[in-house]
Fold:
Amino acid sequence: MFEFFKKSAVRGFGVIKNNPQILYTIFLLIAIPFAFLISGQEFLNTARENQERIEQERIGLMYDVFVRYADEKIASSDMASVQDMIEYLAGENPSIEAFKVVSYANSAFMVIASLDRQEIGSIDKANAGRYQSAMLGSFFAFQEYISGERYWRVVKPITDRAGNITAVAFSDISMAHIDDRAAQNITHAYFVMAGIIFIIFLLLLRHARIIDYATLYRKLEEIDKMKDDFVSIAAHELRTPLTVIKGYLDLLSKDRMSDDDKTSMERINISVEQLNALVGDILDVARMQQGKMQFDMKRVDVAEIARGVAGSFAPISKAKHIVVNTDAPERAFVFVDEQRLKQIFVNLIGNAVKYTPDERRVDVSVRNENGNVSLRVSDTGIGISAEDQRHLFGKFFRVRTKETEDIRGTGLGLWITAQIVAEMGGRIAVESIKGKGTDFIVSFPSAEESKS
Structure:
């Protein structure tokens, strides 16, 4: 068990070492709630201090008013008014639980007015020490806890106009209702704080997951780069033996072969060409993804290339009894890479011938239109649905229908074509009707327009 925890700890430290952001997240998970708790406690302490100061000021103000009133009434021996004032104050402030006025006579403190009428005329020995201090001119307002409840105990001398102390006022003011309300507010505040901390905790956990995702993304990027490098190297290595096979096939003399041998050799040649085309597509994809595809941009005659590429499909179109028509002006110049332009024509015309049923036609046209040269490859094949047209230029996308299930392909040709067109500053579009045929339109700025 110890070894298991030890290995887990070592792995955990290794992950943290390789991902410093995790350590930062752990620090935030601890620091932010701790900071909230500290700041919340400071706020509560400050609030309590302010509350006590306000309570003391209000009690002092109430006593100042009472003492002035009581002084006049005591001087005129109107103790009934003093008693009424005490009862009035207690009625307005339910927190006052005890309120009395005592006078000093015969070395004792006798109650002359009290909230508890039964006390009037009795000697208050319990608070004699406080009364003695008040007789010396001292004012007391202090807190005591009685049976778990907080009280303000107030002792203040009552003086006549000459400054002579004639009596002492004493009261117990309960803070229980205020403390209960404060406790409720504090509890509510703690719940709110706990909720905020919990939300922050969830956000930080999400932050940690995002860090995990970022780490995973970096690893996936590394794996993806390794995959691209492997595919590129593998494709290059495949091209060498294919070139050798192609060379030996060209050296073989067909004159001395039987018809079966000639057929077999032709099938080998077709397979080599297909595999060579696939390797070429893979290399193009790798170059594009790595941003390594190079373009030798120059002024090129599109009409001449269109006629040449269309003519190169004569053997294939003848085998399917498909007529490939070319309609192009004598010359039409654009500023592109010549080999890449040929690749565009090969992909588009090749697809048109491949997806057009036997004994139909394919039209290749070149037009000068509004300062652009448009290249249109039209077939009378199976057509493409509107749904499939939206995904047609996606990587590895192929139209999956009953008519195409026996037609081989990788789904890379049109993606590569679209990427090349975009890199050379052109546009590509498709127009198609299901069951009627498809038109691919590629346009580039005319070279004559760009020079003028």
Summary: The chain is about 55% helix and 20% strand. The domain at 23-174 is CATH 3.30.450.20 (Beta-Lactamase). The mean pLDDT is 81. The longest helix spans residues 176-251.
